[in-house]
Specification:
- By secondary structure, the chain is α+β, with helices and mostly antiparallel strands.
- It folds into 2 domains: 206 residues, Hypothetical Protein Pfu-838710-001, CATH 2.40.320.10; 277 residues, CHAD domain (Alpha solenoid), CATH 1.40.20.10.
- The chain is built from 14 helices and 10 strands.
- Helix 13 runs antiparallel to helix 14.
- The longest helix has 37 residues.
- It is globular.
- InterPro entries: CHAD_dom, CHAD_dom_sf, CYTH-like_dom_sf, CYTH_domain.
Length: 506
């Protein structure tokens, strides 16, 4: 049985032992009845690495027995609206309360390899919960939300046992009724409940044992902030995004490879800009590792773009063996490249890179320069690289050298953009117009390269397509001509954007 995935939207409340749940009928006009499902006895075992790598990133891996949701669960952060939950039911033997724990299913654990990084997972806490569940229903009997009253006894692997009581309100699957959550909350607060500061029961059970993830400080930066403070924020945020996107790539989510590769490039650029805040050799090693990561993802990203472009290019063409062969070839290339990319994410070098990024801290005992000054100098340096590349293109003696100059110009424009966008956290830094022009160069020249690659892929498909369906070559020919036109138009736009960026003073 495969895992199910859903969005969990819930709120938690701390409550004293003597408190009684209020009447929730009529909390909103939609709540017509409350169904008491009685008391359930739940036993949940939470798993993590010895250094609590999952808990540090707010990820929950657990096995629950008892209740309708008995099974293996993984909870990860969502898009801010709720948490993503993946569930895999237990078989009858494993569902018994006294069943042996066993190993987590690979289907749930494999997407977390970027967090676990080859280390074993083991039980870190066991929670016994006596749960009373109430279902809020509308006039037609549809479930709107579940309200639970939990008496929890937690036994962590290390530390002292603890117990507490809490209430939870969780919307029914597919619902996003904030008004209902707000109305129920008002009734709970009125009888003495308090909004809980804990995201998950296991976090409360472990308490101070869970080290905080280094995601940068939450307070706004000041105009005169030091480079060390800026670096902590900027690098920490990008490392957190890199780790989160690792899971998305492993789950095969749309555009995840592109986002991971882009984040690695942003991180390289930001590290270069804030290098004086760190030990230089450490930054060099991290930039080299991020460069290799980008290379390992490039084939998968290119294949993804090529498949999307080819699909669009033949969308209006008649169906037939030639078109089918082109799209099948593109899909096969994409799948092979994606498998290679995921395999690269399982290498020891990559795991060591993630460890080193998470451990990176600014130098102590030195006077750090002002962040705005260091970033402006980096911005000017990247702009000079754009200018040099533009001049080399203008003076190039042939297609090979001009193509290399364009590639260098695009890379420099991206670095320039990434530095400016990171520096926006500094009040009054500016540079928005320059970043916009750099993005125009990046987009247009990227479109040119993608169109050239798509045209080449069509040519690659021609020999077999000709044998399958000679008449289908007209479809491929039209698609090829379309991509060549797009490549030429994008090159013109890219050169115009490049010279506009060239003329802009940073």
């Amino acid at each position: 049985m495969s895992a199910s995935t859903g969005i969990e939207i819930e709120r938690k409340y701390d409550v004293e032992d003597g408190a009684a749940l209020p009447d929730l009928v009529g909390a909103t006009a939609a709540v017509a009845a409350v169904e008491d499902e009685g008391v359930r006895e739940l036993v949940t075992v939470y798993l993590d690495t010895a250094d609590l790598a999952l808990a540090r990133r707010g990820v929950v891996l657990r096995r629950r027995t008892g209740g309708p949701d008995a099974g293996w669960h993984v909870k990860t952060s969502g898009d801010g609206r709720g948490r993503v939950e993946h569930r895999l039911p237990l078989d009858d033997a494993a569902a018994a309360a006294d069943a042996e724990l066993g190993a987590p299913p690979a289907e749930l654990l494999d997407p977390l390899r970027g967090l676990v990084r080859g280390r074993p997972v083991e039980a870190i806490a066991t929670l016994a919960v006596q749960r009373r569940a109430l279902i809020l229903r509308d006039a037609d009997g549809r479930a709107l939300a579940e309200v639970v009253d939990d008496h929890v006894t937690a036994t962590p692997r290390r530390g002292e046992p603890s117990s507490w009581r809490e209430w939870e309100v969780e919307l029914a699957p597919g619902s996003d009724d904030d008004a209902l959550l707000d109305a129920v909350e008002q009734r709970l607060l009125a009888v003495g409940a308090a909004v809980s500061g804990s995201v998950a029961k296991v976090a409360r059970a472990l308490g101070a044992a869970v080290p905080a993830a280094r995601e940068g400080a939450s307070a706004a930066l000041k105009p005169k902030a030091g480079l060390d403070r800026f670096a902590t924020d900027a690098v920490g945020a990008l490392v957190s995004r890199l780790v989160a996107l690792d899971e998305s790539v492993r789950r095969g989510q749309e555009d995840a490879v592109h986002q991971l590769r882009t984040t690695a490039r942003r991180l390289r650029s930001v590290l270069g800009a804030v290098e004086p805040a760190y030990e230089a050799q450490a930054v060099d090693a991290l930039q080299n590792g991020l460069r290799e990561l980008g290379r390992s993802l490039s084939a998968a990203r290119d294949a993804e773009v090529r498949r999307e472009r080819l699909t669009a290019a033949v969308a209006d063409e008649p169906e037939g063996p030639a078109v089918e062969h082109l799209l099948r070839l593109a899909a096969d290339h994409e799948e092979t490249a994606r498998e290679a990319a995921v395999a690269a994410l399982d290498g020891e070098e990559y795991f060591a890179l993630l460890d080193a990024l998470e451990a990176l801290t600014p130098l102590e005992g030195v006077r750090h320069p002002r962040a705005s000054k260091a970033l402006r100098e980096r911005m000017r340096r990247e702009h000079r690289r754009v200018r040099r590349a533009a001049i080399r293109f203008d003076e190039a003696p042939g297609p090979a050298s001009s193509g290399e100059a364009l590639h260098d110009a695009r890379k420099a424009a991206k670095r320039l953009r990434y530095v400016i966008e990171a520096a926006r956290a500094l009040p009054g830094f500016g540079g928005t117009g320059l970043a916009r022009r750099a993005e125009a160069v990046q987009d247009a020249l990227g479109e040119h390269l993608d169109a050239v690659a798509a045209a080449a892929a069509i040519v690659e498909a021609v020999p077999l397509a000709q044998r399958l369906e000679p008449a289908g070559l007209f479809s491929l020919g039209r698609a090829h001509a379309q991509e060549e036109r797009r490549a030429a138009d994008a090159l013109d736009a890219g050169l115009l954007a490049l010279w506009e960026l060239f003329d802009r003073e940073p």
